[in-house]
Design goal:
This protein is an alpha/beta fold.
Length: 327
């Protein structure tokens, strides 16, 4: 059998919209955008001579689908944009332990190997050349930044997890005042990180709240922008680090193939190519960041456990609704 990669878009219906006849050898539900992960899935399918069916969608929708399907899910492997998504599935008993999974150089991993971070993404500011560079993300509530800032929609899990980290580290009252200050400063809430980085790159805004690799993608297109890692002073909040993650469902009867796929994703060479292709931080030890990306060891990080991020998700979403950011 020749290797075939079958692509399905996430639809409202709970049934996977597949192509072709017969059952695939592996079904992947991916909250990672197709351009970022598809080349690696294709390579694995070709190397293993397998038919892999992929269902793409928003990470929150992917998680919701797996929660709804439960032990009847068609997914063998779930890939998400963040660690909270996979930890949610683990906490609901929907992922299986994978103690033989090679460990990466990161705490962003379940102790039992049921999920692991794949590539790191730091929350930074994308700043237009010549614009003021805030030392703290929390400075963005100051009047001088009014009308100059853009952010993705609050449904974006990376933005949500960042605000959860603010709540955990600095308290609910501080987080509320921060969001209300952004709203009062006419924060432009755009559909996605890509929209934010494009808008800053085109000069519509001075500053955007994004993951670090969006800055590099915009620079690659020729825009005069830079990444600002905020709150780096001693005692400062630091830079929040999240990770794209993946795990194997407990429902799968294709555990062997799923584990081979997981092992492939954490291979040092694949990690190196993640870094070069997408400018994300590799999580395998000894693999440097892509040229031009600030080395992670030079960044003061803030950390919140995946368990805490997951436990606090609902409260953060409630806070977003109460503040009405983007309304």
């Amino acid at each position: 059998m020749g290797a075939r990669l079958l692509i399905a878009l996430l639809a409202a219906a709970p049934v996977l919209a597949g192509c072709g006849g017969g059952d695939p050898d592996l079904v992947v539900y991916s909250g990672r955008a197709e351009p970022l992960i598809k080349p690696f899935i294709e390579e694995f399918a070709e190397r293993e001579d397998l038919e892999v069916d992929v269902r793409y969608g928003d990470t929150a929708d992917i998680v919701g689908t797996v929660l709804e399907e439960g032990d009847k899910t068609r997914a063998d492997v779930v890939i998400g944009q963040d660690v909270a998504a996979l930890e949610k599935l683990r906490s609901e008993g929907l992922l299986q332990a994978n103690p033989g999974l090679p460990k990466l150089d990161t705490p962003l991993r379940a102790d039992d190997g049921s999920w692991t971070g794949l590539s790191g993404r730091a929350r930074v500011l994308i700043v237009r050349e010549g614009a003021e560079r805030p030392k703290s993300v929390f400075d963005l509530v100051e009047p001088r930044y009014r009308g100059k800032i853009a952010a993705p929609a609050t449904s974006n899990v990376s933005f949500r997890d960042f605000v959860t980290a603010v709540r955990v580290k600095k308290g609910d009252d501080f987080a509320r005042e921060f969001l209300e200050g952004l709203k009062a400063n006419d924060l432009a809430v755009l559909a996605s990180h890509s929209d934010v980085r494009n808008a800053v790159g085109e000069g519509e805004f001075d500053i955007g709240l994004v993951n670090h690799y969006y800055v590099e993608l915009e620079r690659k297109e020729g825009s005069a922008v830079e990444a600002v890692y905020t709150d780096q002073e001693p005692g400062g909040f630091g830079t929040f680090l999240n990770a794209a993650s993946a795990g194997i469902t407990k429902a799968t009867d294709r555990t062997d193939i799923a584990r081979r796929f997981m092992n492939y994703l954490v291979e040092p060479e694949v990690q190196r190519r993640f870094a070069l292709a997408n400018f994300e931080y590799p999580l395998a030890a000894g693999i440097p960041a892509a040229p031009g990306v600030k080395p992670l060891e030079d960044v003061k990080l803030t950390s919140v456990s995946p368990e805490r991020l997951t436990a606090e998700t609902d409260a953060t979403e409630e806070l977003f609704a109460e503040v009405g950011l983007g309304d």
